[in-house]
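Hi P.,

Sorry for the delay on this. The queue was packed all week, but I finally got your sequence through. Input first:
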Amino acid sequence: MKEWITGRNPVYECLRVERRHFFKLLINKSSSAKGRMEDILKIAQRKQISVEAVDKNVLSKIAEHHQGIALETSVYPYTDINAILDRVEQSKNPMFILVIDQIQDMQNLGTLIRSAEIFGVHGMIIPARRAAGITPAVVNASSGASEHLLITQMNINQAIDELKQKGAWVVGLDMDDSAESLEEINLDGSLAVVVGSEGHGLRRLVREKCDHIAYIPMMGKVASLNAAVAGSIALYRAAVNRKINS
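Then the structure:
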């Protein structure tokens, strides 16, 4: 199967990481070969990818916000949990995993992927069903960070069990009377952060498997944080704690 990746940063990261097969690159014939576009064309030439200059309306039929470029590729290359665990071992750092429990919004998923890659997460686990997958829209929302991050699709409860067997503490993000402040939880060592869905938070079984349920203290009048924002804050705090205590 094939799909189109659009946007200059997502296309650049796809080409740079080279985890996919590439078939064809379309560029707006009115675009100048400067900046990121120049970088993309150099990589395409080096990899001997077919490049076609086309009218803007051709690209607009592929995606609305194409930024003058579209890359035809194979579909996103999911990995498995063993590859993520291998990366943990190779890094010689404590495990740092992001687990997503049924995020539906593609923009939220893309934001979490981008945050996970930036803050040094070893890998990410998403459900195989009833949740957003790694589509071209998610690649775009992540600004291409998805191409760097190892992501697997599997049953979330089984994934948490495997991570705990490998020594991970599991911290789920939610808000209720039983939740602890994120500031009071030790985020050092092997860690899996679990982010629930936008509307319902963590599912009951997933919640029960967590070692801690954490909330992010807020000072404003808004009732809660967006799932992607909350997850990003938790990943940042964990990354800072791990750096300070390494």
